[in-house]
Amino acid sequence: MQRTLTLYLQPLALMLFATLGLSGCSHDSKDNIEQWPTNKECDLHAESCTAQMGESKATLKISPHPIPIARPLGIELVLENLSAEKVELDISGINMYMGYNRVTLTPALEPGRYIGTSMLAFCTNETMQWQVTLMIHKADGSQIQIPYRLETRNR
What we know:
Immunoglobulin-like, 43% strand
């Protein structure tokens, strides 16, 4: 009887310790990340896309239009009612891992405007789905992440 009880309790105890141990690690920088919703109505191939939360706005433009694969891209960002210590743009493949592609945008002369360059990697898939995420680092150590979706076709 005691052997049967031990066989049941050992896995439970292991799961309990693993859960407690992992939950102790969950109070990291993710607590300081505010995720804005994805604007699914906007098409970055045709226009600038604006995300808004309260009075704060972020307008992202990627050019040229339509956005090409494996060609230099101009990135422009305008922030309104939102200050940033650092701004990064992360591009990741949704339907296929495409490697690490993150660039830091440079503050322009106009307040709240940031610029940079990047590129979409070439993919053998006919249709590639991308998540383009703005990562706005604030002075207090918190971060705002603003996701945009993009789809490209390999012609």
